[in-house]
Amino acid sequence: MASGRIIFLNGTSSSGKSSIARELLDILEDGVFFHLAVDSFNAMRSKRELGTQELDAALRRTRMGFHRAIAAMAAVGNDIVVDHVLSEPWRLLDCLRVLPPEDVLFVGVHCSLDELARRELARGDRPSGLAAYQYDLVHAHGDYDVECDTSTASPRECAQLIKEFLPHRSSPAAFTRLQRRHLSGGHSENAQ
Ligand SMILES: Nc1ncnc2c1ncn2[C@@H]1O[C@H](COP(=O)(O)OP(=O)(O)OP(=O)(O)O)[C@@H](O)[C@H]1O
After folding, report:
1. Which atom of ligand 1 is nearest to the CA of 130?
2. What InterPro entries does UniProt report for this protein, alphabetically (predicted)?
3. Which residue in 31, 35, 78, 157 has the fewest CB atoms around it within 10 Å?
């Protein structure tokens, strides 16, 4: 059974990942795509109040489970659009360990700080300053297959760019390059 393709959108909160994912599901006609968002997995967790340590552990397990759910869906041939915020080094390292690197199209979703602040205010359901806090962290690894800027392009335009790039991605893919850089010889810096 052929494994599915994984379009992995990484960007800060409010950068426009979910909007691009929705557009991608509309315009990708070759294959059957699923939008898997880390937010949806967080929403599945029970609402019981947790202490700091218990919450940290639950959040970590949620994200680890999310990464493995992506791998499991793709392994049986489902095409996936992932919507994630790689704001801690271990999240990317874990994805590099569990996802088939050549099946991943790694997409950097950028947006200017001014526009992020404007969107946060307009949405009202995200803590003010969250995107600014994540801004330097999410793209720290510095390597993608393709990048888009939602300050200057609409979600549909970004999705179109990604769609056009999909058949032309180069090998080794960004995930393979990052695996070699960060996981070679079993070395896994910042894994914890
Ligand atoms: N290219 C764009 N141009 C203008 N507004 C946009 C663009 N993309 C998204 N938005 C708006 O920004 C807000 C956040 O978009 P979206 O929910 O897609 O971001 P996100 O990265 O998935 O955020 P989060 O991680 O916080 O869920 C929404 O109000 C959306 O309408």
Report:
1. 26
2. CPT, P-loop_NTPase
3. 31
